[in-house]
Amino acid sequence: MQNWIVLGATSGMARPFLRRLAIDGARLMLAGRDMEELETLAKDCKLRGAAEVEVIAFNIRDTAAFPALIDKLAATQGVLNLACFVGTMPEQSAIDADPMLIDEVVTDNFTGPAKFLSLLAPVMEARGEGVIVGVGSVAGDRGRVGNYVYGAAKAGFATYLSGLRNRLGRKGVHVMTVKPGPVETRMTEGMKLPFMAKPEQVAEDIMGGIERRANVLYTARIWYFIMMVIRAIPEPIFKKMSI
Ligand SMILES: NC(=O)c1ccc[n+]([C@@H]2O[C@H](COP(=O)([O-])OP(=O)(O)OC[C@H]3O[C@@H](n4cnc5c(N)ncnc54)[C@H](OP(=O)(O)O)[C@@H]3O)[C@@H](O)[C@H]2O)c1
């Protein structure tokens, strides 16, 4: 039996991913802040074929609650998998006006998920199987004027996931880093961004990446090539650009 705990289950990107897992008959644990929304999602997943669905109150900033959830995960029967969609992206101008917001951005996008995964790592190591999916962003590939604090947090998370992959890969646990370009969700509401993907397409890409054990997955695929070019732009030129 495949167990999936999904952190940030209410995320626009997580929803179609959950639907896919439900159709596959997985046992789901939906973790998030909005219990009412989680209950609605749980009903939908059950109707679509999930073997079992449980909702779990979860806040990435509440580290004191992590150990109890880790114990619960350690007790699950079958293969344990995790996907983390948690993230926040305040306007860069709001962060520039109040730099104290940096702590929250770094907690939500990097250190919160990293703390949870570091507590889970020994459990996964002992099991010797399973998949961890961590959602970062193309924003982590280069510091841009428009969202460099969010980008820095995602870059930190990507580097963390790379090390975790190195650590857990040799124990039979696969860690996949997902780097979405712009996706049509609540996070990008009202924004006009290039090559916007649908969350359904992202979910399909993630399922495919899990199947073929991708290490780093750019979604939509075009972002792999776009970021290759953006990373290659020399700093003296890049610093004058507003992309
Ligand atoms: N949309 C994009 O263009 C895009 C591009 C690249 C990467 N990403 C990343 O993709 C992931 C999913 O984002 P999305 O686009 O699906 O946006 P979203 O719908 O806003 O999802 C963000 C998720 O994070 C959860 N969350 C925020 N703060 C939390 C906290 N303190 N504790 C627990 N959960 C918390 C939200 O829960 P609530 O429902 O309770 O608010 C929500 O489930 C994020 O990591 C985001 O940074 C998004």
Short overview:
It comes from Rhodobacter aestuarii. This protein is of the alpha/beta class.
SSE topology sketch:
Elements lengths: L1 E6 L6 H10 L3 E6 L2 H14 L3 E6 L8 H9 L4 E6 L7 H6 L3 H27 L3 E5 L12 H22 L4 E7 L18 H13 L4 E4 L2 H11 L2 H4 L5
The structure holds NADP nicotinamide-adenine-dinucleotide phosphate (NAP).
CATH class (first level) name: Alpha Beta
State which percent range the strand residues make up: 15-25%
Placed side by side, the strands forming the largest sheet appear as 3-2-1-4-5-6-7
CATH topology, what is it called? Rossmann fold
Roughly what is the average pLDDT, rounded to an integer? 97
Order of helices and strands: EHEHEHEHHEHEHEHH
Q: Share of helix among residues?
A: 40-55%
**Which CATH-level-2 architecture?**
3-Layer(aba) Sandwich
Number of strands: 7
Q: What's the CATH H-level homologous superfamily?
A: NAD(P)-binding Rossmann-like Domain
Q: How does the major sheet shape up?
A: 7 strands, parallel
Rg:
18 Å
How far the N terminus sits from the C terminus, by CA atoms, comes to 45 Å
Note poorly predicted spans: none
Structural class: alpha/beta
Discrete helix count: 9
Bulk shape: globular
GO cellular component, one term: membrane
GO molecular function, one term: oxidoreductase activity
Keywords: Oxidoreductase
Family: Belongs to the short-chain dehydrogenases/reductases (SDR) family.
Account of the protein in words:
It comes from Rhodobacter aestuarii. Keywords: Oxidoreductase. InterPro entries: NAD(P)-bd_dom_sf, SDR_fam. With 243 residues, the protein is α/β, with parallel strands linked by helices. The chain has one domain (2-238): NAD(P)-binding Rossmann-like Domain (Rossmann fold), CATH 3.40.50. It has 9 helices and 7 strands. The protein has helices at residues 14-23, 35-48, 66-74, 92-97, 101-127, 148-169, 199-211, 222-232, 235-238; strands spanning 2-7, 27-32, 52-57, 79-84, 131-135, 174-180, 216-219. Strands 3-2-1-4-5-6-7 form a 7-stranded parallel beta sheet, with helices on both faces. Helix 1 packs across helix 7. The longest helix has 27 residues, at 101-127. It is globular. The mean pLDDT is 97. The chain binds NADP nicotinamide-adenine-dinucleotide phosphate.
